[in-house]
Amino acid sequence: MSENTNMIKKAGITFSEEQGQLLEIAESFSRDKAPIATVRNLIESETGFDKDVWTEMVNLGWLGIAIPEEFGGSGLSVAEVVTIVEPMGRMLLATPLVSTTLAAQLLLNAGTTAQKQDLLPRMAGGAIAALAMHEEHGDWDISHVTCTGVISGDTVTLSGIKRLVTDAKVADTILATISIAGIPSLVAIDSGSIDSAALQRETVIDETRRSYRINLDGISVPATNIFDAEKTAAALKRYHLLSCLLLSAEACGGTAGAMDITLNYLNTRRTFDRFIGSYQSLKHTMVDILTDLEAARSFLYYAAGVIDTDEGEAAVRMAKAQSSDNFAYAGDRAIQFHGGFGFTYECDAQLFRRRAFWTANQSGDAIYHRKRLATLLLD
Amino acid sequence: MSETLPCIEAFKKEVNQWVTKNKPAPPTFLMPQSFMEVGTDEQFEYLREWQEKVYNAGYLGMSWPTEYGGGGMPEIYQDVVNKELVAQNTPFMVNTLGLNWAGPLILNMGSDEQKKAYIKKILSTEEIWCQGFSEPDYGSDLGNAQLKAERDGSEFVLNGSKIWTTLATQAQRMILLARTNTNTESKYDGLTFFLAPMNVDGIEAQPIKKLTGEHGFCQTFFNDARISEDCIIGKEGGGWLVAMKTLMFERGAEGGQAGGHTSMPVTVEEVAELSKRVYRDGKPANQDPMVRDELVKLLMRGKAMSLNGARSKIPALISERPTSIAMSVKMLATELSKSIGDQATSLQGSNSLYFVGDDYAVDGGRWQRTYFQAFSGTIGGGTTQIQKNIIGERVLGLPKK
User: Fold this and answer.
1) Which fold has domain B8-128?
2) Which of A79, A137, B49, B167 has the fewest CB atoms within 10 Å, i.e. is most exposed?
3) Statement: residue B388 has pLDDT above 90
């Protein structure tokens, strides 16, 4: 990681000049590229995202932010990625940026030299990576793996079914957790080795996303595609925290987005000769959502700065717990405060509530993280 | 100041040594948690002596101008002192109101004569200040204050009463919002702000017994009390503006305070610690899954408060709603204090039934008192509900009507 020379440090929160610049650019980029009408149109599309927008993001260097310069990235950190994911979340701009970023981190932490040299420059250049971590059991524990790989000579033969693999159809590479001799392992699967019949589209709660089920039965990949076994457990642990961090960023953005549409309605809709925003039951609730969002953003930027330190785990779990609950509440109230209109598909409030389920219920919800925080903070 | 400033590291060491050597022995009474709880002369004198000592050592008002009795140094030195005073669990500064809102107000809006007359005495405790804002019939609706100040030559004649005038029985001065004109179109335009003396015929302070059973608050009565027009700060009829400025200081939304802490903080960490000394099902309560979850939620609220403070100093991270964090600090901090008292009390199991005064009360009944006392924060200075109106309207832009 390159040294940030102009870093602001304030009692726990660090913020780099690069983060400041990226935040500003990403805010206007997201507003520009994802007005709600565009989001609605993309829901109807095959891939769920605009290839041209993706290309622009690649050209801005966003896919290589946290990839070292030697592999074609800009050598910053995931903290800088946080500052672009947050505004994207606010506009419901769905792209494979998060999964590709997380895949690159897995490679950096546990990939072999050959894997890194092959895949990282491609990812920095916009090759999409998908993550196959979920299985039938629905357990958030990523070391709970039932899909298997059997090594025979130079190849490893896979079996089992992976679920909820987002953007699998457009991915260049899919990183999957598989159990090899009972040990959770990581393997890179080239999309070319997956038969189209093995890929089945799923219907998911967040319609801005594209998700697939992958039947691994019969797929064989070179044994050299298996990640460094000694580094895999630690890499998966870090992956879990990074995933939580980026989901928290998305949730903070989404909370702000849900607030935007709700505030707009409260300031324009009248009942009984008053703007509904003047009623305290609505006004006070919006203030609760605001103060919760402020807390979540503070946790988020704190966590972004300390993720790779001793404080990292607690910081990230606090961010995830806070942001998950906030976004759910902001989305829930967004629907309720739109009254009858809120009950319709046409009202955008449901989009945010669906996204809130999507971000909260990956990598552990608020209770899941508070349980782990209790161990970290109380014992 | 012409002399060179001490290096921070050396200064930290010096302060640490001074506080270690000079901090007062623990009192024989249960320490009040803030100036609003000071109910006896014994408590008051203990605290007053401490503030005087800190000021005489040069550790209070360090960034206030030297010509008025301050230290004329950069704020960072006072920050060092503040941290050390908290770290060593020293008593709070009893002239809270003078140091934190009357003083900054006078420095900000007062005349040179007023600064010369009042600032140094605020620091030295020679003059204790109280606040005459709320009235029995008008609580959070400050703009409706009705205490009458009628002009008579160069004097004003005061009639009416003010409530929640904390420390009024000990105070020499009061910041007072009074109605000098009853015939204005807007209720706000008839208000004038005074820096009023308390030792005047016709001003009488009576202690009020609080919900905790202790004294601390007062009601102050004005019967044909005469004060000079020189007591006005700002303009006659311009009191609302001054009052709003005062509230900014009171709520911590604006800086410039003299330093020192204002309360014996109760922290979320102490509740976590308490959970190890109290029991559920034969085991320390911190092993009960449901208790654990509640404790984590509380710890997160505490952590969020401090991180909000850090984040609010990074402009890029508060650019969209720059006042949001500052305007909600008072509300969040006071609600958190109340939750701390509530949770810490309930943690004690059947021992939570004791109260201050019983030998069996856990920690002297401190947590029970914390809970009840915390209402002074969630009600005083504008209730939580009023704060939500203000934040909703000013930060989120929601309509008033």
Assistant:
1) Butyryl-Coa Dehydrogenase, subunit A; domain 1 (1.10.540)
2) A137
3) yes
